[in-house]
Amino acid sequence: MSRIRPDWSARELSDQFLWKEGLNASPEETWTRMEGPHGLWVMYQNAKVMLEMADYATRNCENVDRVLVETLRSDAMQIRVCVLMALAQYAFSHASEGVRVNAFRAASMYTGMAARMTQLLQESAASLVPDFVAAM
Questions:
Q1: pLDDT tens-digit series, residues 25-47
Q2: Number of C-alpha atoms within 13 angstroms, CB side, residue 54?
Q3: Half-sphere exposure of 94 toward its Cβ, with a 13 Å CA cutoff?
Q4: What is the pLDDT of residues 51-109, one digit of tens each?
Q5: What residues have CB less than 8 Å from 69, skipping those under 6 apart?
Q6: Using an 8 Å Cβ cutoff, are 112 and 118 in contact?
Q7: What distances in angstroms separate CA 124 from CA 17, 28, 45, 95, 120, one per listed residue?
């Protein structure tokens, strides 16, 4: 959990970040609130860390929800692909509508993944939830 990047948070993108999916901003507002490519890169890196956390739970907890872990794995891969697409588009056209839409899509998936990771921690390692919330 110490590898989660705290220098950007998706809290401004969602009213219930870490507890519920969904964004409360348009693609344009999301792009601004995520600080453009900086937020995208943080999401890319944090998705990998959350994937590693899910894998750790699978290896070390007998009663882990396997479907939830598989969903987290899928989320991580989709977020990373979407972020790479948005960053590649950004390199060629800066903050075009396509970039903002892909960034919005990545941010939406990211808030969902963060909410599911919170759920996994509540079920498997409740004592870590405060640290996770603080890091995110």
A1: 889 999 999 999 999 999 999 99
A2: 27
A3: 1
A4: 999 999 899 888 899 999 999 999 999 999 999 999 999 999 887 888 999 999 999 99
A5: 54, 55, 57, 58, 120
A6: no
A7: 20, 37, 23, 40, 6
